[in-house]
Amino acid sequence: MGFFLLLISTLVQVSTEEIIFRGWFLPVLNVKLGVVKAIIISSIVFGLIHACTNLSFLAVFNLTLYGTFLALYAILDNSIWGVCAWHTFWNWSERTLFGLIENGASKGDGFLLNAKITGNKFLTGGEAGSNGSFFLTIILLIGIFYLTFKLNKKELLKLY
């Protein structure tokens, strides 16, 4: 039962973030500044609001990249439903399924796995959790380049 309650509470919390950032803030900035500046500013603010004492610079940078990825996804999808689902599953699976640290918070007790992160903090994320990992930087950059390519192809984002 706790498994599903955690999913519902994560869905409510994350959807609130997405309504604010991708449902309201991004479109308002887009009208005033254009799409590229809107993505950059909303993503930086998204990264900074997640900054806490346990997060490294790389973790905050990755959260900014994550905000960029979600902004591009929302624009491509013309909806925030997909980003709500993606963000919910990301946060919920980190702690609830895999027992990982999420954004520097305490470690969760995973239902599938109770991971213990050891090794180089630059690669594992250390106390910041997977959001502080350089591997996540690479994955997010690949996702951002892919979505940017798709948006350019549909002429929804003019970068070149």
From TrEMBL:
Domain CAAX prenyl protease 2/Lysostaphin resistance protein A-like: from-to ranges: 3-92
Entry keyword set: Hydrolase, Membrane, Metalloprotease, Protease, Transmembrane, Transmembrane helix
Molecular function in Gene Ontology: endopeptidase activity; metallopeptidase activity
Hydrolase found in the keyword field: yes
The keyword Protease appears for this protein: yes
Residue intervals passing through the bilayer: 132-149
One matching Pfam family: Rce1-like
InterPro entries with a match to the protein in the record: Rce1/LyrA-like_dom (IPR003675)
Gene Ontology annotations of biological process type: CAAX-box protein maturation
Name of this protein: CPBP family intramembrane metalloprotease
Classification lineage: Bacteria, Pseudomonadati, Bacteroidota, Flavobacteriia, Flavobacteriales
